[in-house]
Each structure stands twice: as structure tokens, then as C-alpha cells.
Amino acid sequence: MTHILAFPGLMPLGDAIAKLSGAQVGEVDLHRFPDGESLVTLPGDLAGKDVAVLATLRDPDPLALPLRFAAETAKEMGARRVGLITPYLAYMRQDQRFAGGQAVSAPLFARFLEESFDWVVTADPHLHRIHSLEDLFDIPVRRIETAPLLAGWIAANVPDAMLLGPDSESRQWVAEVARLADRPYEVLEKRRSGDRSVEVSVPHSEVLLAGTPVILDDIVSSGRTLIEAIERLLAAGARPPICVVIHAVFAGNAHDDILAAGAARVVTTNSIPHASNAVSLAQVLADAARDLQAADPPIRRSAEQTTR
Question: Whole-angstrom Cα distance, residue 231 to residue 236?
Fold first, then answer.
């Protein structure tokens, strides 16, 4: 990797990745006009360089077109290849049509990105019915796993942790973090009846009451699942829990609401910049991007060959 183009707000992570990979880093200038259109300006001389655009997609709609503009402009300026490092990859949750007429956004967004990028690196996307990112993308793609990093933080900071998964879908992931941290775990039962309506049942466990509860979640948006779990844990006599989250989406006042509900602390990775960031993804992102950039350029399938 020779040049990193960091979108606004991502320069600290860009600097860290650049130091680890020996790359240059510059910030993408993104200007929004009063009519809602965007002007993207790239820094530096990109001719002949391998470029990685660094952009996290917490609020994807205003970033989607500037992201494509940045990639295509880098190519116009002579970049050899342009990849995307997106620690948080949006639009992965809608992986099937739940009601007539709905867009299935996961494959649509993947195709949107691969039209401009030669490879993609991301951290633990929210995949459910889709087995892997390779099922979505026709370009090289790498998913980095955060479980070892989260387990390392828990082992170092919460030696008496009792790990809790927010729902049955999290069982395999939470079990892996628990194994790496050498701590016990349980999985909560969750029933969702709306975007902000969640019911959580907490298991009754002597181990849970004896240790410090650590609730793990991959994405926190409204925070309702964590808030419900915290309230149930405290009502059961548990200590104030620590919440460990991969992607700090935190819509509205979600972070403050989680703390107000009784969480002892909220810890997140820096996939999305936030004051709660305590686990850095810089090294694993740098390693994955370096591997993809060193690989042979992808052979893209034609529209006639592509079947979904």
C-alpha cells in the first residue's frame, strides 16, 4: 500500500494504518453545497500508486456517492489500483425480501461498490443468511475478525468477566471470544417487535452474579437491546455490566442512554470514531489491506457472466 486517502474524521485511524504499513496518508476534502451535492478533492500525486480509500459507513447515504467519486477520481489521476478499507460496512442486514417490493440491499450495495473499487477490507460485517462476503462480491474482499482483539481487552481489563451474548445469533461469536479470553458465557433471549421495542430475558446463573457481566454486541444503533439487558441484569442482582461493542453506530442519544440505564462502561472498537473507542483495528486492517494489495489484480466477470 503506497497511499491512504482518509475520509473526514478518519485521519487518526489512517495515520495509525500508514505507520504500520509504511504508506503515505492524506485526507479527502469533502465539501457539501447548499443544494446537497458534494465536491470531492483528493490530496497528493497518485500517479502509478496503489491507493486505499479509508471510509467508515456509519451514515452511508451521504457518503455513497462521494466514495465512488473519490475512487474514480483516483483512477483518473493515474492510481494503479484503488481499494476500500471500510471498518464498518453498511447495508449488510437486509439480505432477503421480508415483504413484497422491498429492496434486498446487501447484494445491491456490494455491486455498487465493486463498480469502482478493486478490493474491499472490512471488520465483522453483520451477515446473517449470507455465509460470507465472497458470496456478495466479485472482487477480492477480506473480513477481519475482531474476536481476538475483544478477548484480549476483556482478559486484560475484566479478569472476572461473565460474557453475555445479546441473542441466539451471537452464540458462535460470543463463544469464540469467551474461549479466547478463557471466561464463561451465556446467551440472552431477545424478542424484537419494532425498531425500538425489544424484550430480553436474562438467565439465572450463580456465575453471572459472582462475576462482572460483559455484554457483547456487534452493532449498537438504538441501544434498546443493551438497555433492556442492563435493566434485567441489575434487577436480578448482578453488578453493573460492561458493554463491549464492535461497531458504535449509536443513533441519537443511544450511548448516553446505555450509561444512564446503569452500564459501568461502554467499550468499542475504532471502526466508527467515538469517545468510547478503546480497541484499535489499525494493525489487522493494515495487514489485510497489504495482503489484498499484493495480490494479482482481479479478473472481473462481465455482466453476461455475472449471476446472482
Answer: 9
Residue for grid cell 494504518: 17
Residue with cell 454486541: 217
Q: Which long-range contacts (CB under 8 A, 24 or more apart) does 186-195 make?
A: 186/162, 188/164, 188/229, 190/166, 190/225, 192/225, 195/222
- b/e per residue 195-227 (b: at least 16 CB within 10 A): eeebebebeebeebeebbbbbbbbbbbbbbbbb
Provide the strand spans (E) within 1-160: 3-6, 24-27, 29-32, 38-41, 50-54, 81-86, 119-123, 141-144
Q: Percent of the chain at pLDDT above 90?
A: 74
Closest CA to 270 of 262, 260, 287, 282: 282
* Separation CA 200–CA 190 (nearest Å): 5
- Lowest-pLDDT range of 56-70, 168-182, 242-256: 168-182
Q: What is the mean pLDDT of residues 9-16?
A: 97
* Long-range contacts at 122-126 (CB < 8 A, ≥ 24 apart): 122/85, 122/86, 122/87, 122/88, 122/89, 123/87, 123/88, 123/246, 123/247, 123/269, 123/271, 123/281, 123/284, 123/285, 124/218, 124/246, 124/247, 125/89, 125/92, 126/92, 126/93, 126/218, 126/219
